[in-house]
Amino acid sequence: MKIAFFLNNLSNTGTNIATRDLIFQLRKSQDIECIDVFFFDKVQNELEITENKIQISFFSIVNFSKYDIIHSSNLRSDFYVSINKSLFSVKKGTKYVTSVHSIIPEDLSFTYGNFISKLISPIWIRVKKNNDAIIVSSDSMFEYYKHLFINRNLNIIEYGRSIEPVNSFEIPETDIEVISSFKKEYKVIGTVGSLIKRKNYEAVISLLKKNENYGWICLGLGEEHDNLLGLLKENILEQRVLFLGFKTDSRPYYKFFDLFFHPSRSEGFALVIIDAMSHKTPMLLSNLEVYKSIIKDDMAFYFELDDEVS
């Protein structure tokens, strides 16, 4: 079997990590002759992928006919595959698969604003329909999309995480020292994820204001970093936060968390929740349907968005 995966870039983010983990398991369990990973943009701190990686432009022509399966996920990769399939594909046996990792209108709205979301969402959904199979990651996602993808081959395949490490990352001694010192002063609220508006990390600051014995360890980078830092300084809380930045693998850090906090306003299925559960770390999550569809009531604590009392 020959498979091609198409991604916007190789950033160390949820969709790409899920794709990398899928490739890792495919190699273990299937007879795979070839896996090629195509991507458009170079980024810093790229995800470690051992397969053949090929950078292309949106106007590159890739010979789809050499592959048995073509898999895309992101906006640009879905559009690229759809256009090239229509114009240049000649092998009838090739199967086209797209995976959906978020509620598309919500995701676009948080990233680009409501106008762009209303303009692009229907087009993107129509492009996704132009595939042999559409994959979502949870019952709630299936319920949301079953009317949009009516009469399409819509499937649920939940995310998984391998217990085996897929890279050789170890926590730097400097991080261990600073975290150990931090834990002597505070119980630790841990967050893992890109610092973007959709993740709603301002809610962590509300927690810190209410609980003087808690500190925040934050793993991740993003455009909201300066805004969060400004809010922390405004509330005289900057000494109770460790911004540790990007990590190749966040999983070794969970053992330091007393509470894992994920206040996101919209999600498809957060891999970090699987990581928190695997470390038996107590979880406080925003009250989203996607979590309720995959997590039993006694496995997490929930709060209502924009309700500080909750």
Please tell me about this protein's structure.
The chain has 310 residues and is α/β, with parallel strands linked by helices. The strands form two sheets. The chain has a seven-stranded parallel β-sheet. The chain has ten helices and 13 strands. The model has no long low-confidence stretch (mean pLDDT 90).
Task: State the helix count.
Answer: 10
Envelope shape: globular
Q: Detail the poorly predicted runs.
A: none
Strand content: 15-25%
Structural class by sheet pairing and helices: alpha/beta
* Averaged pLDDT: 90
Helical residues, percent? 25-40%
Task: Please state the CA-atom Rg, rounded to the nearest Å.
Answer: 20 Å
Largest sheet: 7 strands, parallel
What strand order characterises the main sheet?
3-2-1-4-5-6-7
Separation, N- and C-terminal Cα atoms: 51 Å
The arrangement of helices and strands along the chain is: EHEEEHEHHEHEHEHEHEEHEHE
Spell out the key features of this protein.
single chain, 310 residues, alpha/beta, seven-stranded parallel β-sheet, six-stranded parallel β-sheet, 34% helix
Task: Give a brief outline of the structure.
The chain has 310 residues and is of the alpha/beta class. 34% of the residues lie in helices and 21% in strands.
Question: What does the secondary structure layout of this molecule look like, with pairings?
Answer:
Blueprint lengths: L1 E8 L4 H16 L4 E8 L10 E4 L13 E4 L2 H14 L6 E5 L4 H9 L1 H16 L3 E4 L2 H7 L8 E3 L16 H13 L1 E6 L9 H9 L3 E6 L5 H10 L6 E5 L13 E4 L8 H8 L4 E4 L2 H4 L8 E3 L7
Parallel strand pairs: 1-2, 1-4, 2-3, 4-5, 5-6, 6-7, 8-9, 8-11, 9-10, 11-12, 12-13
